Amino acid sequence: MAERNTGWRQGDILLPTHIIPEDVSINCDTQRVVLISHDCDLAQPCEKEPYVEFIIANLSAKENGSYYFAQNPRLLQFKIDLGNGCYNILQLQHTDKYRIDKASFLQNASKDNTMSLSPNQKIILAKWLAFRYSRAAFPDAFNNRLDRVQSKLREILARADKYIIIVFFDMHDFIDIEKSAGDPYPLNIFLVYDSNINTASEQSAEITRKIEELFEKSYGKKKIADEIALQECTAYPDTKFPFSNVRKMYEWRLEHISLKSGSASFQ
Fold first, then answer.
1. For the chain, which residues score pLDDT lower than 50?
2. Domains of the chain: which residue ranges?
3. pLDDT for 32-59, tens place per residue?
4. Rounded to whole angstroms, how far apart are CA atoms 92 and 79?
5. Where does residue 7 fall: left (phi above 0), alpha (psi -120 to 50 degrees), or beta otherwise?
6. Degrees, nearest 5: CA angle 30-34-35
7. For residue 52, how far is the Cα from the chain centroid?
8. For residues 124 and 207, what is the distance between their CA atoms, to the nearest angstrom?
């Protein structure tokens, strides 16, 4: 039977002492351990779930807005409120993931009582962990065509990383199609912004305008474009973006790569 009152939850921040593998170096002053096993797995007996998973996190990282809100599939940052106007930047990297025998964990693990993730941050953590294995890989032909604007698009969106929560690409059912030269990909881009930020609406409108200008300059107007035909770029507040759109669109991130043979591997 599962033990529901374990006291441990996904997203708990732990002291690194006594639970780090012997062959892994750790700095107890600048690093912590973030528990990433699911709550239900933590509640299961050791016979059913014999291991606990965690990520070694750094406290000395430089703040980078593009690592907030699970925008980057490899790196994630949280601003941890310490009170009295003080905070730490906690940075997680997927490659720093380890596991430990659950019995040993339950006997030796200790929480860091000076810091914790908020409920919303724990939701972001869970989505970041899941996105590692669920993010879309766009067609090679589309990626190759998009290369022309990647750098500039990254630059535009970097200015909005404090309020743009997510970017969706709607490719009109061509997500799995390798198009031939001269056959354009129709594309709609949707930006979802944080409605709690007062200036987000106006700033997002400016970002959409810059993106539309970029695509028109790079590929031509949508009626004549022969590589990528941007139909529209629209910004929505997070309170009004239709859930039906989420079900049929693909989230786009700056680090999207395709699955062609010989391409860079996922890390």
1. 1-2, 256-267
2. 13-134, 140-251
3. 999 999 999 999 999 999 999 999 999 9
4. 12
5. left
6. 155
7. 22
8. 24
Residue 184: closest CA among 140, 234, 139, 142: 142
**CA–CA distance, 89 with 108 (Å, rounded to integer):** 26
| 119 vs 135: CA distance, rounded Å | 23
Q: How many residues does the chain have?
A: 267
* CATH code 1.10.3810 for 13-134: no
- What is the amino acid identity at position 36? I
Please check whether residue 211 is in contact with residue 169, taking contact to mean a CB–CB distance below 8 angstroms: no
Whole-angstrom distance, CA of residue 225 vs CA of residue 237: 29
For residue 241, give the H/E element and its range: none
| Helix H or strand E segment including 100 | strand 97-101
DSSP reduced 3-state for 60: strand
Return the structure tokens found at 245.
């759109």
